[in-house]
Design brief:
Layout lengths: L8 E4 L4 E8 L4 E5 L7 E4 H7 E3 L3
Antiparallel strand pairs: 1-2, 1-5, 2-3, 3-4
Pfam families: DUF4222
Protein name: DUF4222 domain-containing protein
Organism: Edwardsiella tarda
Length: 57
């Protein structure tokens, strides 16, 4: 299973590009920021890999 690297960008199914801010190895959670959101977001690695693709732009 791929683990996103801090500082990389991913795109969700709606075309929104998010920036990876970290990864919690113990809980296997991906931490990221959405544009315009005041707070950071988190998602289990399995869910993140199903819903996001690496941004190539």
């Amino acid at each position: 299973m791929r683990t996103p690297k801090q500082g990389s960008y991913y795109q969700d199914r709606n075309g929104v590009v998010v920036r990876i801010t970290g990864y919690e190895r113990e809980s296997q959670r991906v931490l990221y920021r959405r544009p315009g959101y005041e707070w950071g977001c988190a998602s289990p690695l399995v869910v993140f890999n199903a819903k996001f693709r690496r941004y190539q732009g």
